[in-house]
Specification:
By secondary structure, the protein is α+β, with helices and mostly antiparallel strands. The protein has one domain. Strands 1-5-4-3-2 form a five-stranded mixed beta sheet. About 30% of the residues are buried.
Length: about 110
């Protein structure tokens, strides 16, 4: 299976990006700017991969806002499409649900 994350980074760097309606809503709700998420994509770290997601392969990525605070971003590529990279959602992770490094879900 081809790695989805390098493809997404390449698409974003070429300006081939679409933000989903849900993505815009979530960015706004958490006071995040699309620009800072797009600019920060190169420094993203994959947390989880969803290669078989019904709408197309996607990944949960840890990124940082312009103040260095953690942001989880779900990036994907629509099924049967080569472009664009889709910013599905972005949110500030809850410390009660995630490990201190924001990369592992806490067990209940």
């Amino acid at each position: 299976m081809e790695m989805v994350w390098p493809r997404i980074v390449d698409l974003v760097m070429r300006g081939e990006v679409r933000i989903s309606e849900h993505g815009y809503d979530e960015l706004s709700q958490d006071g995040l700017l699309a620009r800072e998420i797009i600019v920060g994509v190169q420094n993203g770290r994959v947390v989880e991969e969803y290669p078989d997601y019904p709408k197309g392969p996607c990944v949960l990525v840890l990124q940082r806002d312009e103040n260095g605070n953690p942001v989880h971003v779900v990036w994907g590529i629509s099924r049967n499409a080569a472009s664009p990279a889709v910013l599905v959602t972005a949110y500030r992770p809850d410390a009660r649900l995630w490990s201190e490094d924001w990369t592992r879900r806490r067990t209940k």
